Every structure is written in C-alpha cells, then in structure tokens.
C-alpha cells in the first residue's frame, strides 16, 4: 500500500476523531479550518469520501466490530477499525486495506502498541464482514433526532429516510441557460423539475461547462424555491441568507435585479466568486437580515436552520450536533420572517424555505406567521410545477420535500418551502 493511501486514511481517521470526539466538530468547519490542506487534491477527496462513507455506515461497522472486541478501544483505534471495516465491506482488497490500517497505527506516536489488535480484528472482518454487511439494517439516526422525526413523519417514513441517508446523494446541477444542453454535455439526466443529475460524477472542476460557468452544483430540492418564486425579468428581488449563492445565481439568471444579503463575510466571498465564475451579477450586502432596509417586489428567505434535510450529503451532522441550538434557530426564523415581511411591497410575494425535516422549522413557522400577520396568505397555486407531486403539498399550503422522495431516481434533500402573498 502506498504512503499516499495511508495519508488519506490517516486524515479520514483524524476527521472522525474530531466529529465523534468529546467536543464534536462539523466536517465543514474542519475543512474550512484547513484540516486537509496539506494533502493532494486526490487524497483530500479520498479522505473526505472515506470519512463520509464511514459515518454513513457507522452503526453497521460497530455491529460487526463488536463481535471481535471485548471492549471498545480508544476513539482513534475505533475509528481506524471503522474506516477499515467500511472499506472492506465496500469491496476493498483485504490485503491492501488491512496493511494500510496497520501501518497507520504503527506510525502513531502513542498507539503503535495497538497494531497487533488492529491487524487481528481487521483480518477477522475481512473474513466475515463483507457477507454480513448487507444483511444489517440501514443505520438509524441518533435518538435525539430520530425521536422528533418519527413523531413528525411516522416510523415507516423514518425508515425510508434512513435508507435514503445511507444511499447518499448523486451530483445535481442547475444550468444557467439551456438545461438539456448541459445534460447532454455532462452525460447527465434531466429531471422533471429542470435539474441535471449525474450518478457517477468525476471531479466537478474538470467537468464540461465548469470553466465556462454553464452550471453550478445545487441539489434538486434546493433549486425548487426559486422556481416557486418564479422571478421575472427586471424585478427587484431580495435574496436573504444568500450565501454561497446557489439561489442568487438562479434569480440573476432569470434576469432579476437581485440584492443578496448574508451576515457571513467568508460565505459572501464564496458567493461573489460563484457569481463571477458563472458571469452573473447581483448587489451584495454583508449584514444581518434584521438590519436590511428598503422595499422589494419579491423576497426569498432561505433561513438558517438545523440542515437536517441534508444528512444524506452531510453524514457528520447527526453526530456533530445534538439539537441544543435548534431552539435559537427556530426563534430567529420567526424574527427573519417578520422583518422580511416589512420589506415586501403590498401585493408582493415571499418564498420562505429551510433545508430542514423538522416541522418547527417549516409548517409550524408558517402557521405561526399567519397568526401574526393579517395581510399574509399562502399561495398554493404556484406549487403546480412539473415534477412536483401534489401529495407533497401540506395542510397550510406549503411544500414538504423529503429525502425518501424520488427513491428510483436518487432522492432529494429534505426541504420545506412556502410562497406567502401580501395583501394589496
Ligand atoms: C441555508 S444557508 C443559505 C444558502 C443559500 N441561500 C444558497 O442557496 O446558497 C443560510 C445562510 O444564512 C446565513 N445567516 C445566518 N444568520 C444570518 C443573519 N442573522 N443574517 C444574515 N444571514 C444569516 C448563513 O451565513 C448562511 O449562509
């Protein structure tokens, strides 16, 4: 096994140590903090993929490992064994995987005495793990999140969502112009909602049309809020909580005059880079939503939320979070709706959305906003779009999207979307 393979695996174990440690960190924070910066691009991608696949299969890996361990070893060795187990059960060559993981432990300052244990356990997994792997259930979410989701959607839907989380997500693109032309160029499938889907993508930056800015990466569900807002040419549209700009680009591509607002300076830099790459323009404001002034024809509010709809892409989330900060987010979402509403012209429309599976961040927000604002109604008519199943429409007139929808075409992120109309 090459030193390169060991490095990617060592970095995957490092990521898992941080995500599953006593002070859990999100993978996105670790990457933004430079955790993989010293690796080659290939190793970086490999380390991230290994860590993500291990998190997706964590429950299965632990079940298999339990049989061969009297008690759990220290976290780093647990994570070495977990990465090795997942690799072996995904078809990795036994000799290569076991050697790489044993080398990694042998080179560790403090844990090299555990290389014998690593070798013995992974050899047993190589012998009996792959056959047992597929018979195990799809890994369940941790209890703190599973409980509220089962309460909201029922046990069967929860199991289907967990199967979707385990399956992971394809690569979805939004085209700046002709979606069919992009689908042809990248060998993708055009979904009924207009997203281009690629099941086995290579490196994104080497794909046809990246350099020329013909498309950007955006989950199919995340592309729907702007379709529901239906931006018109020259409309004055406020895009709140805009970074890194997936929806800003959709709005600008439709010819709207967009003002994009986000309070995160680093994320706004990414938004500007994204706009530049695709050759689109928007006015940008780095500030708190609640400090925005003016009057707008239409508003998109993509509020900060638990992001529980994106677990199939961010398998670290259920482990790095515990729900303790969700109450603050829910309170903030209500404040953002109220301030945004004050910026909307009479007769205007506002789309509220969150990439959350929790009704408190979707259906309940709209129920409560309707009670606070007499001039607010929910416009359900705008949800009749190609690819939108009428069964996804909720009682209050919003749209509930879940990761277990479209199972045959690769699923979608969880989202809640509602279009609100202001009285004239
Ligand atoms: C769901 S993300 C937005 C994704 C974005 N709309 C897109 O399509 O690419 C939520 C955003 O809310 C921003 N945010 C959080 N609190 C904010 C605040 N008080 N004011 C403005 N933006 C805020 C975060 O920085 C984050 O970029």
List keywords for this structure.
alpha/beta; Rossmann fold; 2 domains; eight-stranded mixed β-sheet; four-stranded antiparallel β-sheet; 12 strands; globular; binds S-adenosylmethionine; RNA binding; SAM-dependent_MTases_sf; RNA methyltransferase activity; NusB_RsmB_TIM44
What does the model show?
Its EC number is 2.1.1.176. InterPro entries: MeTrfase_RsmB-F_NOP2_cat, MeTrfase_RsmB-F_NOP2_dom, NusB-like_sf, NusB_RsmB_TIM44, RCMT, RsmB/NOL1/NOP2-like_CS, SAM-dependent_MTases_sf. This is 16S rRNA (Cytosine967-C5)-methyltransferase. Keywords: Methyltransferase, RNA-binding, S-adenosyl-L-methionine, Transferase. The chain is an alpha/beta fold and 424 residues long. The protein folds into two domains: 131 residues, N-utilizing Substance Protein B Homolog, Chain A (Orthogonal Bundle), CATH 1.10.940.10; 201 residues, 3-Layer(aba) Sandwich (Rossmann fold), CATH 3.40.50.150. The protein has 16 helices and twelve strands. The strands form two sheets. Strands 5, 6, 7, 8, 9, 10, 11 and 12 form an eight-stranded mixed beta sheet that branches. It has a four-stranded antiparallel beta sheet with strand order 2-3-1-4, covered by helices on one side. Helix 8 crosses helix 9. It is globular. The termini are far apart. 46% of the residues are buried. The mean pLDDT is 96. The site of S-adenosylmethionine has 17 residues, from helix 12 and strand 6.
